[in-house]
Amino acid sequence: MASEPQGGLTEYIQHHLTHLNFQVGPNGFWSFHLHLDSVSVSLGLGVIFCLWFWLQARKATAGVPGKGQAFLEIVLEFVDGQVKDVFHGDRRFLGPLALTVFVWVFLMNAMDLLPVDLLPWVTEKLHVAHFRAVPTADVNMTFAMSVTVLLLVIFYSFKAKGFGGYMHELFTAPFGKWFAPFNFALNLVELVAKPVSLAMRLFGNMYAGELVFMLIAGLFSAGSWLLFGMGVIGYAVWGIFHILIISIQAFIFMVLTIVYISMAHDHH
Amino acid sequence: MEFNATLIGEMISFAILIWFCVHFVWPHLTKAIEERQLKIAEGLNAAERAHAELREADNKAAAEVKQARQQATEIIDRAQQQANQILDKARTDAVAEINRLKAAAQDDIASMAQRAREDLRERVGALAVQGASKIVQREIDAAAHKALLDQLATEI
């Protein structure tokens, strides 16, 4: 067990909080970066989710379901029940959206349960220095999803109320037409607050969770068997607790998505 | 970053986490799944059973209707037979009664004719005696000639 100086932990954490950056375009103003780790893991998990559900759906029977089908039915029924509770309209779009959000976010969160050094260790063998396994601990990922939700909210607001109706609502609610600029500013804040809170909540939880894992992992190389044992137990306990957190965060993201989009259908 | 104790510690913790999931999370999931399977299987079974029962009830009802119809025709047949029997019996009874009455009437007629004949005979006898006494112009000893007169009466 290599004993490292205090700087080691800071360095360790900093190392783990660095994304696999991929610069697109030339240096300078027009270049932008891709977090290839977040993109690849989230896409991979998305593909796994789609293949899994698609293959099960293809061989689904109306009779007694197999264990795999029964599990998916339970998930589907749970998500559909949540949508049904909040939204009283045509669920053909919102249902699948909620299912996708729930399962995808859950899978991405679940990457947090993998040992924090496992994937980086594997990628290091492939000569990739930095790799963060949890896409939802990347603020870009959570904002990507929440901004998509915001666009859907705006789209459904227009669709449900018409251009005039939505504009009217933006400028006259909640204080009437004499406070139009004030109303508009208020509604804008409300609109922007939705994706920000949605993204920051998920990001914050997953980032903090990942950080705690790293801090505990610092005990492993602290230099004594006692600390090593405490680290093992602490890491496991935090992992068990984290099962709850990842489920709850996926659930909250799904429910808020449903709530925001169903609110877009409501008339004030 | 070199391979060190950190990864080993994390892997041990991960093993504990997997053990936890296998023992405390997985059973709940499989239980829910199996309960759902059982519920669906029971539901399908119940539907199947209800279907079979309905079919059976239909068959039974049809059979019962058929049997009832058969019984009804049997009853009608028997009733007709009975009616015919009663009619036949009444006819034979009536014929017998007629014959009996006819015989009695014939008996009556015969006995009345007999009586009338005997009456007539007696009167003719008396008339014959009267006529004979008138012809003889003297009293015939009735007692003395009674045997003769009776013989005469029977001959008439």
Averaging pLDDT over every residue of chain A, what do you get?
Answer: 85
By DSSP (H or I, 4+ residues per run), the number of helices of chain A equals 8
- Strand segment count of chain A: 2
Helix count of chain B equals 2
Q: Indicate the percent of residues in helices of chain B.
A: over 70%
Q: Identify low-pLDDT runs of chain A.
A: 1-6
Terminus-to-terminus distance of chain A: 64 Å
Radius of gyration of chain B: 61 Å
Rg of chain A computed from alpha carbons, rounded to a whole number of angstroms = 22 Å
**Helix and strand succession of chain B?**
HH
Main beta sheet strand tally, sense and closure of chain B? none
Query: How far do the termini of chain B sit from each other?
Result: 175 Å
The best one-word shape of chain A is globular
The oligomeric status of these chains comes to heterodimer
Classify the beta-strand content of chain A into a percent band: under 5%
Task: Give the overall shape of chain B.
Answer: rod-shaped
* Structural class computed from helices and strand pairing of chain B: mainly alpha
Largest interface: A-B, 34 and 28 residues
The major sheet of chain A is characterized as:
2 strands, antiparallel
**Overall helicity of chain A:** over 70%
Describe the fold and architecture.
The complex is a heterodimer of chains A (268) and B (156). Chain A has 268 residues and is mainly α. Chain A is built from eight helices and two strands. Chain A has a two-stranded antiparallel ribbon with strand order 1-2. In chain A, a hairpin with a 7-residue loop joins strand 1 and strand 2. Chain A is globular, with a radius of gyration of 22 Å. Mean pLDDT of chain A is 85; it is low at 1-6. The model of chain B has no long low-confidence stretch (mean pLDDT 87). Chain B has helices at 5-136, 142-155. In chain B, helix 1 (5-136) packs across helix 2. Chain B has 156 residues and is mainly α. The chains are: A mainly alpha (268), B mainly alpha (156). The interface between A and B is medium-sized, with 34 and 28 residues.
